[in-house]
What we know:
The chain is mainly alpha-helical. The protein has 3 helices and no strands. The longest helix has about 35 residues, at about 45-80. The two termini are about 15 Å apart.
Amino acid sequence: MTPAQLRTFKQALLDLREELLGRGAARIEPNRTDTTKVGGDEDEQPLNEMLQAIASNRNRNSAAILAKVDKALRKLGENPDDFGLCEECDEELLPARLKAMPYAE
């Protein structure tokens, strides 16, 4: 990979890292808004649980991608010759894949 390509991928990774950190964690609302309220809208609790699951999944996915981005940035800094190679088989990753996911392993 050329030095210009490595710089392009490094910038893409830095931009993605900044975007992920800028989003912050999705807020997970409590399941019940009023602890004294037991009855009421029967759809409220399942809806809140679904929203909690969505927020939790988003937070987990963002954290996982951020960890991969940090790993790719370390690889670029420590051993740039290995960047863009599959970690399992040492074959070159397709440029289109790296463009879409510069943190691909």
